[in-house]
């Protein structure tokens, strides 16, 4: 495009109501025509019109966009980036747009399905991410869990949020369970619910019963003792020290096996 045409575009881009700085027209022309190296200086300009003009520069690439997206209070610029599909083809730019606190929610939600599972996980813990985007990222991860390889599930179990851990517990798998138990974000209520469900196999119960973080918690111990699949060796370890009332409650439970109840009778009184 001839330089005269760029000048016409630049002048037209200056709002009529603005008290334009003397060099604003020149800044707009430079934004439209600068070379790759000079563009890095242009995108440090504080004027929104200049930044949006720079998006139309044919020399603009993903490196410039990533540098620009480190700035704050640029919502209008972000909207313009999203509208110019040519300049956001790079995956890193898509992620930076979703992660930017100024990105409108509808734009971020449109881009979320294009992100890899571990980048979705980053969004769940990055500071400044809106609650809506964090929740949407968690949901995307949960939807993808059944199709993830074991290695990915184990990584998600070590680093995931409480909602992701809930889904992984339901998914099952010994390695995944062990990683979940060591994740500080796992909530006691979630583990208690898992132990009370049909998903808690004998092996899973044994894993919880051996875990140093969880085995001494009274509510978790009780959930283990109430599970009909709990191995008898766990009963032998956990029964000493139980109150008479707890022993009676366990003996009255219709879920326990006859072998489990026999151990209870050997430990304390039978129900009245």
Summarize the structure.
This protein has 272 residues and is mainly α. Helices cover 62% and strands 0% of the residues. α10 packs parallel to α12, α11 packs parallel to α13 and α13 runs parallel beside α15.
Structure description:
- This protein is mostly helical.
- The N terminus is likely disordered.
- It is rod-shaped, with a radius of gyration of 29 Å.
- About 30% of the residues are buried.
- Helices cover about 60% and strands about 0% of the residues.
Question: Which features would summarize this protein structure in a list?
Answer:
272 residues, mainly alpha, 62% helix
**Structural class designation:** mainly alpha
Name the beta content range: under 5%
**Cα gyration radius (Å):** 29 Å
- What sort of overall outline do the alpha carbons produce when their principal axes are compared? rod-shaped
Number of helices: 19
Q: Which stretches are poorly predicted, pLDDT < 50 over at least 5 residues?
A: 1-20
The portion of residues assigned to helices is 55-70%
| Major β-sheet annotation | none
Give the terminus-to-terminus CA distance. 95 Å
Give the overall pLDDT as a whole number: 89
């Amino acid at each position: 495009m001839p330089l005269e045409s760029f000048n016409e575009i630049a002048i037209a881009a200056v709002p009529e109501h603005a008290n334009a700085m003397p060099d604003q027209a020149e800044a707009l022309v430079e934004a439209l025509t600068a070379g790759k190296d000079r563009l890095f200086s242009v995108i440090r300009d504080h004027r929104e019109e200049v930044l949006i003009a720079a998006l139309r520069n044919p020399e603009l690439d993903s490196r410039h966009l990533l540098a620009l997206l480190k700035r704050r209070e640029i919502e209008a610029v972000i909207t313009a980036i999203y509208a110019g599909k040519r300049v956001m083809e790079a995956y890193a730019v898509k992620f930076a747009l979703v992660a930017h606190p100024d990105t409108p929610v509808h734009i971020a939600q449109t881009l979320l399905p294009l992100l890899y599972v571990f980048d979705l996980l980053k969004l769940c813990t990055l500071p400044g991410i809106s609650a809506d985007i964090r929740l949407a990222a968690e949901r995307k991860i949960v939807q993808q869990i059944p199709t993830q390889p074991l290695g990915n599930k184990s990584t998600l179990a070590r680093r995931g949020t409480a909602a992701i851990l809930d889904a992984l517990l339901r998914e099952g798998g010994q390695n995944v369970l062990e990683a979940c138990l060591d994740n500080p974000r796992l909530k006691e209520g979630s583990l208690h619910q898992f132990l009370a469900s049909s998903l808690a196999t004998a092996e899973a119960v044994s894993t919880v019963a051996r875990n140093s973080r969880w085995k001494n918690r009274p509510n978790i111990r009780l959930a283990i003792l109430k599970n009909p699949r709990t191995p008898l060796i766990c009963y032998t370890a956990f029964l000493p020290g139980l109150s008479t009332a707890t022993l009676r409650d366990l003996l009255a439970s219709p879920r326990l096996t006859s072998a489990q109840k026999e151990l209870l009778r050997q430990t304390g009184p039978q129900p009245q």
